[in-house]
Design a protein that fits this description.
Largest sheet: 4 strands, antiparallel
Helix content: 25-40%
Structural class: alpha+beta
Mean pLDDT: 78
Distance between the termini: 68 Å
Number of strands: 4
Length: 68
């Protein structure tokens, strides 16, 4: 099935699932790219491991737990 909007967007559906979108400016957006965009929007920003503060302690602290 193919649906067109008044703003020039054409969407191609297969078994009721959008698989391809054409826009007025000639850009083609496959479903995989649409899914990636949605996932990025939902995921937000991630911090790299170097940005996360962690407690630093000597290994002897863990030895004490094992002895108790």
């Amino acid at each position: 099935m193919i649906k067109a909007t008044l703003v020039g967007r054409i969407t191609v559906y297969h078994h009721a699932e959008a698989i391809l979108t054409y826009t007025k400016d000639g850009k083609i957006s496959p479903l995989s790219e649409q899914i990636r965009k949605k996932q990025r929007a939902k995921a937000g920003t991630f911090k790299s491991a170097s940005d996360i503060e962690v407690a630093v302690r000597p290994l002897s602290v863990y030895d004490q737990f094992l002895q108790e």
